[in-house]
Amino acid sequence: MSAVDQIIASKLGRLPAPLRVRLPSGKVLGAAQAPAEIEFRETAALGTLARGDLGALAAEIVHGRVEIRGGMRDLMRVVAALVPDDGQAIRPRPWQRLWWSIGSILHHSRSKDAEQIRFHYDISDDFYAIWLDPLRVYSCAYFRDPDMDLAQAQLAKLDHICRKLDLRPGERFVDIGAGWGGLLFHAAEHYGVDAIGITLSRNQFDHVSRMIDRKGLSGRVRIQLCDYRDLRPDQPFDKLASVGMFEHVGRANLPAYFRTLLDLLRPGGLALNHGITLTGLDEAIVGGGLGDFIEKFIFPGGELVHVSHAIRLLSQAGMEMVDTENLRPHYARTLWAWSDGLEAHLAEAEEVLRRGSDRERAARTLRAFRLYLAGCALAFEENWTSLYQILMTRPDAPDAPSGMAGAHADYPFTRDHIYAPRDAGTD
């Protein structure tokens, strides 16, 4: 047995979950009856597992040099054990922070952001439709009732956001990063707002445009192909939501991002930022090269910060945080629902991807998404990453009238408006 084989065999023997490894020679290491198997087709790829470089191993899987068999949940139990003990909190050094800042500036120009968004979101609407809910809500769901399925939980999430923003008929509402329009339409149809959405995805823009016509909402819902930095409304908005877009802004741009939110709101207006954050206070990141895999194959330009850093920046911009909620467990469940949905329709998904691409590229994309969805589910389960909804307000000027005397804000004194039962027929 070679030295590499011995290292792998030793790792397998220490795993709390069984894994079978098939070597290029045909030799099998590990538990014979393991529910998950990794087959190495090239000897060079064995080093990725021996080193614990899971990002490189994932890349080998995407390129077809390593094949996985078995359920993704079984595989992720093994991955959790393979992440290096010190890899769950890799703390950046001062020179790395400087390099990140420079890279953040370079990777988040308007043209670069548009390119990166389209890399991920414009793969194929039909592909996303296979494993998302019917509204294609591509962000953390809200399982208000534990027995909810994905579609019900996504509707609950849309309503949760609308309730937090205390949306009222006739208010001007903007959704920054509107996706396939789920929140736009829910807010307009159930809360009577005048809604505008912006996106950098051509596919999403075209889809929402068609849905506006189909629903007969051209007078109340509009969509723009627009960078958030270039949005120039005729008048400030009453309410604002940014859902799943915060992760694409870039660390260097976050101060300007929050100032933009401030400028878009009227005094007393409310904004909700729904985004993924790091768990480590000092911006420690998950080790094992997993972040590099996400950057290369899934979300180029994605950058995360700790929630405390986000709150500090929004406060410096002049906003006031009035409510913050951690939905991390909800996102783990959401991602597993997406992963299970994709795993149940792998052949259909690959066929859909082939329509706009060659066979090998379609296969690589599918393999990348299988790892991404299950891997992210694991990251939220293990508390390596989190998800926060931050509700903030643009305070009134001291002499401005307020809904609550002396409060200088329109935000209610209690959360009753979020959880109180609504009239029948409004959900």
What report would you give on this structure?
The structure is a single chain. This protein is α/β, with parallel strands linked by helices. It is built from 17 helices and 11 strands. The longest helix is centred in the C-terminal third of the chain and has 23 residues, at 359-381. Keywords: Lipid metabolism, Methyltransferase, S-adenosyl-L-methionine, Transferase. GO terms for molecular function: methyltransferase activity. One of its GO terms (biological process) is lipid biosynthetic process.
From the helix content, strand content and strand pairing, which structural class follows?
alpha/beta
Number of helical segments? 17
CATH superfamily of the largest domain: Vaccinia Virus protein VP39
Instruction: Report helical residue fraction.
Output: 40-55%
Largest sheet: 7 strands, mixed
Radius of gyration: 23 Å
Give the overall form: elongated
The name of the CATH architecture of the largest domain is 3-Layer(aba) Sandwich
**How many domains comprise the coordinates?**
2
What is the CATH class name of the largest domain?
Answer: Alpha Beta
> CATH topology of the largest domain, what is it called?
Rossmann fold
